[in-house]
Amino acid sequence: MSTTRRRRPTLDDVAEAVGVSRATVSNAYNRPDQLSAHLREDVLRAAKQLGYTGPNPTARSLATSRTGAIAFMLDASLSAAFSDPALSVTLDALATAVDPDGHALLLLPGGDDGGPRADRVLAAQADVAVAYSLADGASALTAVRDRGLPLVVIDQPLVPGAARVGCDDRGGAAAAARHLLDLGHRRFGIFSAQCLSAPRGGELSARNAADSRYNDTRERLTGYLDTLAEAGISPGDVPIWEASGMSVQGAMPSAFGLLERDPRPTALLCMSDQLALAAIAVARQLGLDVPGQLSVVGFDDAPPARWSEPPLTTVRQDLVAKGRIAGELALQLLDGRRAPEPTRLPAELVIRATTARA
Amino acid sequence: MSTTRRRRPTLDDVAEAVGVSRATVSNAYNRPDQLSAHLREDVLRAAKQLGYTGPNPTARSLATSRTGAIAFMLDASLSAAFSDPALSVTLDALATAVDPDGHALLLLPGGDDGGPRADRVLAAQADVAVAYSLADGASALTAVRDRGLPLVVIDQPLVPGAARVGCDDRGGAAAAARHLLDLGHRRFGIFSAQCLSAPRGGELSARNAADSRYNDTRERLTGYLDTLAEAGISPGDVPIWEASGMSVQGAMPSAFGLLERDPRPTALLCMSDQLALAAIAVARQLGLDVPGQLSVVGFDDAPPARWSEPPLTTVRQDLVAKGRIAGELALQLLDGRRAPEPTRLPAELVIRATTARA
DNA sequence: CAGAATGACTGAAGCGCTTCAGAATGTCCA
DNA sequence: TGGACATTCTGAAGCGCTTCAGTCATTCTG
Lengths: 358, 358
Hints:
3 domains; DNA-binding
């Protein structure tokens, strides 16, 4: 129709074509009750004919100061983050919760300091930020505050003004430890999530582990060690190994280290299901029977826990609820409401087939 | 300092505070060479003092007509999509490729027609769209075209004007089938990815399967069936089952159906590693030895294939390269360059331990 | 039938930034 | 010493849209 590659039509073009004001065209899209149905049809028809696909999202955002996006901040690269199925479940629940309001997710992968780079956060087009288990002191958190963005944190210490959802990491960990104690185990090993130690992977002193910049790691560790201590097992006698990666494959090297210690632990407390599965895979390679010679407990109860071989004893947390609540909190903050009291979801032990008597 | 909750400072506020023009402050952030180092420092100091965190991303986008985001469109919900590890790997490679240019990823999950809803696409703040294995005819694709957004498609039929990267699905599938034929198998089963049939999951006629709206599904199917046909096995004699879900857990019910057929196939051609793992899990439950009584071949060679028990024979495609190339293509299109010729990555059989003589 | 109420549309002021064509000043070399 | 050039900064025109206070008819109401 047109002679050459023209610029995209704007609202003004449509207004001119129909012979109405720009405000009317805007209303045709945003407030149908503000004009007659007849005129609205004319407008929409003209728009279609001109190839106008609706208000430019960026211009609309500027005028409304709403982008319609939620920034989701991760502590690591996408492949690292998504190698944990718990994230997929949580993220999907969050997306589902905010979808009816038309919010999209802007993914901000982590850099080197346990969160996305500050400049990425400052440049992100989002109305609200959700932090998923970032390290304490990650610069992304400062950037969010400086920008004045509402913030929801998941599994992190409470930030002033932010909304929070998390689970009872400490209680869940304690339950796992108690279960193994009840089965008569006395030689334990703890397979820890990453702590941002350097170099990563390998044995950790209890002190280093307690200084982890990740809140959930600290909490779970405390739950394990306190419970063992109550049973007379000194923290110094419990080897703690930091995972070399959070995927099954990535964690296997460090699982080897933990299982080749002498004396070998008879029971492993793992800070995620993936770590537990890695430990089981390594045990198999070493010819160890699970749970005959080694008991293993995971954490999260993500989908793979149920169909692993053998099915994994683990600490269940409601990942769907966690994501959904985070999404609802984000919407509330967007609505201008204040952050409610933090939500702490329960964590309960699910006994399957990877634990047995010592 | 200020008496009340003030509006956020703008570039003008900083300009006024320093006593320079707005353009100068803008230059301080975007073109440091346009002003003296001394003045620039003054500006930045004043900005910090006022709590100005840099140019408002939305306003900047409007002025530059660049959002700095890439829309990543999926055919399904996030949890469904991410239950396939191949996606994580590809997405991460893409993110890594575009990260140096500061691009973020806007995730658009799928709705009901094999892609994101059109209105979500029209409202998305992104400069370029990447379609990851959407169904043919998904309305999201039309929306992208109408908006005039540059498009990169992954594993899909070529769209005019779009850039494309994919793998040799047909050749890879053919290699898998040939391998099993060479091992002497004659009774096959095909475990297919979803085809958007209704109801989903269960046996599919060859004709229905060939009509799948997913390009990679069609290609792989053709690769399997043509190769078997060359060996004298009629397509009509090969049961095709559509997976009830793409995660291991989700696919297990339909795997049951496929493995309980009489006569039972001795070899399974699976359109993804996850489907293969689901089939193996079900075989185990049925007391079938893999590969003793059942040979299984996957597709993708995603990370879990390597450490599954037993390690999975599968068709390897370079997922990292796929993601990286998609990212590079996106950047090229952003740069105004034309879409180059489509890239077809090789797919080669990796023989591990889930296949054996019939 | 005057006045109030309703419905349909418009004018214009922003939203906060980038950018480009100058203006103003200073520097350099012939 | 005077014109050519750099260097540094500014004015103003957008980018495309939303929204609010009106304006102008038309329809109720008592």
